[in-house]
Write a structure and sequence with these properties.
- The complex is a heterodimer of chains A (about 450) and B (about 260).
- Chain A is α+β, with helices and mostly antiparallel strands and about 450 residues long.
- Chain A folds into two domains: about 60-180, Uridine Diphospho-n-acetylenolpyruvylglucosamine Reductase, domain 3 (2-Layer Sandwich), CATH 3.30.465.10; about 180-400, Alpha-Beta Plaits.
- In chain A, about 25% of the residues lie in helices and about 25% in strands.
- In chain A, helix 9 (about 325-335) packs antiparallel against helix 10 (about 375-390).
- In chain B, helix 1 crosses helix 7.
- Chain B has a seven-stranded parallel sheet, sandwiched between helices.
- Chain B contains nine helices and seven strands; from the N terminus they run βαβαβαβααβαβαβαα.
- The complex binds flavin-adenine dinucleotide.
- The site of flavin-adenine dinucleotide has 33 residues of chain A, from strand 3, helix 3 and strand 9.
């Protein structure tokens, strides 16, 4: 048996595991029956240790392919190993877009279900799980079909369940009708955090898509200056020459690991300044491609290597509307501790769904990329955990690589229900990941 | 499991009642350490260290008593410690050591053998078993407490320094042998430290307290440094000292 080295997107805590690539439901079941510990893996875009299991078996889902015909109402069945990029290449020419997309197309449907991913439209359309009609799932107990009506407990444990209820092999979901491959984008610049948050509360409901980029490196009156971009799919009437062409593959790659320390407070400050200056003060109806609007980072492959050998963490939390001050205090805490951070992403969330470990809750979410290095960082993030917990909020597991089991228990109050369902389908606790071991999600 | 900041949850400490090990353990418990198993010679001291670990935030502790003078027990000691953790072990600290009394020991064959057993043979036997177990796990970290005295052995402490030198060099090869397994080994080379072991001895330059050593070790763990010098400046001091001509070296170090 040869072991392969695996990490998440943040390139921290590597695991050596036996990687298998089953191509069918039966093959998944066979691997699962043989393994002591097993977890599925997609494209490894979760930031931490969710898609790896040290010393165990990792089932790469990329051979679970196949894209079915798109029905007239947009319903399609897709293999769990298909990426959103591959799916869009087929469906955009037919006039269909995914109902929810994360900030990168390089995720698999299986991974997206396991994290119950959200996009810029969460305030309107909810997360991916809200658009799933049915899934095929292989558990240690066998193959099952789950849906909001067929074993709904297992369905909602699997949506956002970080792969810990089994391996999803097929997903049936409903796509979103589009007329063109363009988005009409309104951009506004805001001097500080209060201003941009007020603008989002006032105006987000008028847009399908909305997201703000916040600069966490400026202090004082300009603390949290931000660029807010909001958009709608362009219709044929909006454009002179409407097309339906999927996004082009990426052009640039980062050929080597940057030296650790390349991304330091100075260089990050300079980058943020550039990004901010580049944005128009105000512009309406800008026509952008789907790719550049939804997946701006996909233009550069492997950009995570810019963070150097030691890697980085992403901290993403959500709090209710009434606790909006936590967003402000979090940015204050980071900018005052001089922990360098690239532009942070700020979004409004609509209501939560029934996913037992699903992340989104109605209110605000803020996500920050932070290079490993500053000695103060672990402590600052522990402080943020406390702030978030006090506010009844939570941290996103798909981005996590440093939470404690105690925090997770408080952040996800439905965790006991989740573990009960996991116990039912996995009584011998075969389904485990390094994340599950770290956060005590394996069950006992 | 260890997190992205190299903060372990399950820790085994061989030589768990040594002052340096205790200082490191406290800091690990204040971060994420959950289960700590302490192995050492003296049950009372181990209990004290275990209480301290709980005070600093550990949820569960256990102890294993062994005597490092007998390398034959190393395998069993490691096995018992791992069994008491009962889960993935993230970090094993090897802090077993005996300074001895050079002037007395150097003319006593049994005493000289004892210093070698405690500082070299027992740790190597234990590391062999630790290595097997961590490699099977597919991840884990080993932290071995060496000494700056291992860099160039002084006449006035050649038994202890020589044993540490053997351990230090062996561990560098061992660390290389672990590449590609998911397991890593890091060496700590503290300078003079105020501990029970050195109590009463005259203080030399660059002497630090155990808390400073622990802080340096925690930072070094996160950085993944192969050799953690404490205080860090000793790396440069020893870059010079190790190449001093013999007469000068003896004059400086064996006053
Ligand atoms: C640049 C970037 C931007 C991002 N933006 C967003 C965003 O806007 N919104 C958002 O919600 N997330 C976002 N993410 C996170 C990402 O969408 C999730 O981490 C997603 O889970 C990654 O999918 P993957 O295929 O890479 O899965 P992996 O990272 O490989 O695995 C993630 C989890 O899915 C499980 N899994 C994988 N396949 C299966 C399967 N077949 N059956 C069951 N479980 C499975 C794994 O066990 C693991 O727990 C972003 C990530 C990056 C790198």
């Amino acid at each position: 048996m040869t072991r392969q080295r695996l990490t998440g997107w943040g390139r921290t805590t590597p695991a050596f595991a036996d990687v298998q690539r089953p191509a069918s439901e039966d093959a998944v079941a066979r691997e699962m029956a043989l393994a002591n510990g097993v977890i599925a893996r997609g494209l490894g875009r979760s930031y931490g240790d969710a898609a790896q299991l040290s010393g165990g078996v990792v089932l790469d889902n990329r051979s679970l392919g196949g894209i079915g015909a798109v029905a007239a109402d947009g319903v399609v069945s897709v293999g769990a190993g298909v990426s959103i990029d591959e799916l869009l290449a087929v469906t955009i020419p037919l006039g269909w877009f995914v109902p929810v997309t994360p900030g990168t197309r390089q995720v698999t449907l299986g991974g997206a279900i396991a994290a119950d991913v959200h996009g810029k439209n969460h305030h309107r359309d909810g997360s991916l799980g809200d658009h799933v009609l049915e899934m095929r799932l292989v558990t240690p107990q066998g193959h099952v079909t789950v849906s909001p009506t067929l074993d709904p407990d297992l369905f909602w444990a699997t949506i956002g369940g970080m792969g810990l209820t089994g391996v999803v092999t097929t997903v049936t979901l409903r796509l979103h009708k589009i007329e063109t491959d363009r988005v009409l984008v309104d951009t506004t610049r805001h001097a500080n955090l209060d201003e941009v948050m007020a603008a989002m509360v006032a105006g987000d409901d008028g847009y399908r898509y909305s997201v703000a980029w916040v600069d966490c490196m400026t202090r004082g009156a300009r603390m949290g200056r931000a660029i807010l971009t909001r958009g709608e799919h362009a219709t044929r009437r909006d454009l002179d020459d409407a097309t339906l062409v999927p996004p082009a593959p990426r052009r640039l790659r980062v050929p080597f690991n940057a030296p650790s320390g390349l991304l330091n407070p100075l260089s990050i400050r300079a980058f943020n300044e550039l990004w901010f200056r580049r944005a128009p003060r105000q512009r309406e109806g800008d026509v952008q491609s789907l790719g550049s609007f939804f997946h701006p980072l996909d233009g550069v492959g492997d950009w995570n290597r810019l963070y150097g050998r030691r890697g980085f963490v992403q901290y993403q939390f959500a709090v209710a509307d009434a606790q909006a001050d936590v967003v402000v205090r979090a940015v204050e805490r980071l900018s005052s501790s001089r922990v360098p951070s690239f532009l942070a992403v700020l979004k409004r969330f609509g209501p939560a769904n029934h996913g037992l470990l699903s992340f989104p809750i109605s209110g605000w979410t803020l996500a920050l990329d932070l290079p490993i290095g500053p000695g103060a960082l672990p402590g600052v993030l522990d402080d943020l955990d406390e702030m978030v917990i006090e506010a009844g909020g939570r941290v996103y597991l798909a981005k996590d690589s440093r939470l404690s089991p105690e925090s997770v228990r408080v952040m996800y109050p439905r965790l006991p229900d989740f573990l009960e369902i996991k116990n039912r389908v996995d009584p011998r606790h075969q389904l485990a990941s390094d994340l599950a071991r770290r956060l005590h999600l394996v069950g006992e | 499991m260890e997190n992205a900041f190299a903060q372990p949850q399950n820790v085994v400490v061989l030589g768990g009642s040594s002052d340096i090990a205790r200082a490191i353990t406290k800091k690990l418990c204040a971060a994420r350490a959950h289960t700590v198993v302490l192995a050492g010679r003296n049950q009372n001291l181990l209990d004290e260290a275990a209480r301290e670990a709980l005070d600093y935030g550990a949820s569960r502790t256990d102890t294993v008593v062994f005597d490092a003078e007998d390398p034959a027990n190393a395998r069993d000691t490691v096995a018992r410690a791992f069994a008491q953790v009962g889960a993935h072990v993230d970090l094993v600290i090897v802090a077993v050591g005996l300074l001895g009394d050079q002037t007395r020991d150097q003319s006593d064959v049994a005493a000289a053998t004892r210093v070698m057993n405690v500082n070299f043979t027992w740790p190597v036997a234990a590391l062999t078993e630790v290595r097997n177990r961590l490699v099977a796990q597919g991840s884990g970290r080993i932290l071995v407490i060496s000494s700056v005295g291992a860099v160039r052995v002084r006449a006035s402490a050649y038994l202890y320094g020589g044993a540490k030198a053997g351990l230090d060099r062996l561990c560098q090869g061992l660390a290389d042998s672990l590449i590609g397994t998911g397991v890593s080994l890091q060496l700590v080379r503290p300078g003079a430290v105020r501990t029970r072991m050195t109590h009463g001895l005259a203080e030399v330059p660059f002497t630090t307290g155990v808390n400073e050593v622990a802080d340096t070790v925690i930072a070094g763990l996160e950085k993944g440094e192969r050799i953690i010098w404490s205080p860090p400046v000793l790396k440069y001091v020893y870059a010079v000292l190790r190449h001093l001509p013999g007469p000068l070296w003896r004059k400086v170090m064996d006053r």
